[in-house]
Amino acid sequence: MRRLFCILTLLLISAKELVAQTLNPLTTTQIQKLDAVATQDVPPAAPGIATAILLQGEVLYQKWAGYADLRDSTLITPDSRFNIASNGKQFTALAVLTLIDQKKLKLSDDIRKWFPELFPKVKEKITIQTLLNHTSGIRDCYDLWSLQGITWWKQTFDNSNVLNLIRKQEALNFAPNTQYLYSNTNYILLALIIEKVSGQSFVAYTKALFSKLNMPNTSFENNYRNIRGPIAKPYFNFETWTTYDWITNVCGDGNIFSTLSDQIQWEKIIQGNGATSVKRNLILQSQQIIENSTFKNYGYGLEFGQYKGLDYAFHEGATGAWKATVIRFPAKSISFITLTNTGKALPYSQTRQMADIVLGLKADADYLVTEPTTIGKYVDEKDISGTYLTETDFAFTFELKDSIIYLKRIGRNDVELERESANIFHQKYDPAFKQEFKINSRGEMEVTAYYISHTPYTLTKTNASFHDFDFQQLSGTFLNTETNIPLEILYKSDKTYEIKFGKKKVTTGLWVSPSKLLVDNYAIDIHRSSSRIDTLYLNGDRIKNIQFVRQ
Fold first, then answer.
1. Which long-range contacts (CB under 8 A, 24 or more apart) does 390-398 make?
2. Distance from first CA to last CA of the chain, Å, rounded?
3. CA-CA distance, 261 to 51, in Å (whole number)?
4. Which pLDDT tens digit goes with each residue over 500-523?
5. CA angle 269–211–254, rounded 5-degree value
């Protein structure tokens, strides 16, 4: 018996050591590296960061640094409340799942069951599912406000303002369930539907949900006056640290305040080690791609993809100087969380640097194609000159001047290029930025851009002729009735225009073809009626096919 007791004791000690090794594999060197990454953008007397790593339901690492409030020298702690912005979409989606579980909602329900006035000209169903995975085609409210010249976060807008804005929209970016395009409006509409179905305010319904999740310091906010502290105030640095008042009341897509402690609790629940009265099957479902969806990159408030060969789920949040990132590797049962209140920090990259350290992954460059693999046929500088576009209208223009080739991009300084080989050029003062020119299978000139921090991307040369083109015919005023925005275009000279959107400042446009003009972050497609230009369609990041008609 004594011998058996000793054996059992040794087995118990070994088991405890094994668990400890599994849950705490970090070496002193790894911890030092993690500390360095966490605090790299937290200088003395500055706002900062709160971050944590969880493995198999236990905290593997956590760190916080910097000030929550510079005025009274309050330091960031695990209980400081950050606006985690779009990371809140996963909780809006979970709220939807709870209502589906109560049989009060279905993924296939058309949103016009609750809002019959929306999009009367759209015959296709706009379902709850298309809102959840951003395939509805509904335009992003913030981009619409920006087009109107409104700085939305300086306004006390709420969800009713968003609904009124969308009521005026007659068309979609695209037909529902045919494409993916991220739109915050989707999750604001989900919040409004939750209110209709539950009979409670969205904030009240999700407050009860957070109570069931044992996350007492997490809440969506629809009244900035009611936001509870201690808040990690947001700061930008324009020669000195500057904060600002937060007064927007739109929520569902974001405007959710939480703490590192509560976010740790959420990760514990996901990993099966956190107490909650929410059904386990709903938690698990919320972490999956929507069943039978043809779109595999977005699910219930989460993005899906691969990071350095590993499958992962993730999301980013950004509202002004507040930023947040969460990444999860389900196969390894490990999660990484970063919350910041400083405009200086980049949690997107910091969080992934931490994953590299813990998972033993190589540097980014080892996983990226950062330069051409072969040298192609010789291309002449004269053949390079011209404007190149991606499918989303991102543009490069190459201009030959005094035997030097320059790369021109909207909103950025011109860059001098040097020839590296027959068909490869690079930026003169940053040789890692390379451009490879070659003819594609359609006989078009293409350029592929390489750099050490991103995957290569390719643009195709526009071979448009402006022979006999009357540049004056575009001048005039065009109106979009959905937003009541006038677009004023005045031709100056040499393909140059003065352009004004509503109250926005006058800017200039870049012609890429007789049917396309690039203006700031927008592309304008030109439609003709015989020889007259009557209709323009504007496309931005998250708004497409905005129709402007000549007045």
1. 390/457, 390/458, 390/459, 390/460, 393/516, 393/518, 393/523, 393/539, 394/459, 395/459, 395/510, 395/512, 395/518, 396/447, 396/449, 396/459, 397/510, 398/447
2. 98
3. 10
4. 888 777 777 888 888 888 888 899
5. 80
- Verdict on whether the full-model pTM lies above 0.70: yes
Q: Rounded distance, CA 109 to CA 106, Å?
A: 5
Q: In what order do the strands lie in the sheet with 322-329?
A: 58-65, 49-55, 334-340, 322-329, 310-319, 303-307
Instruction: Spell out the residues 6+ positions from residue 440 whose beta carbon is closer than 8 angstroms to its own.
Output: 446, 460
| Residue that the structure tokens 């058309």 belong to | 110
Distance CA(255)–CA(159), nearest Å, equals 11
Q: Which amino acid is at 47?
A: P
Predicted confidence (pLDDT) per residue in 529-550, tens digit: 767 889 999 999 999 999 999 9
**Tokens linked to 288:** 């999956």
Contact partners, residue 196, CB within 8 Å, separation at least 6: 114
Nearest to 211 by CA among 134, 98, 310, 110: 98
Cβ-contact 192, 155 below 8 angstroms: no
CA distance 321 to 527: 40
CA distances from 330 to 54, 241, 305 (A): 12, 38, 12
Instruction: Give backbone dihedrals phi and psi of 161, rounded to 5 degrees, phi first.
Output: -65, -40
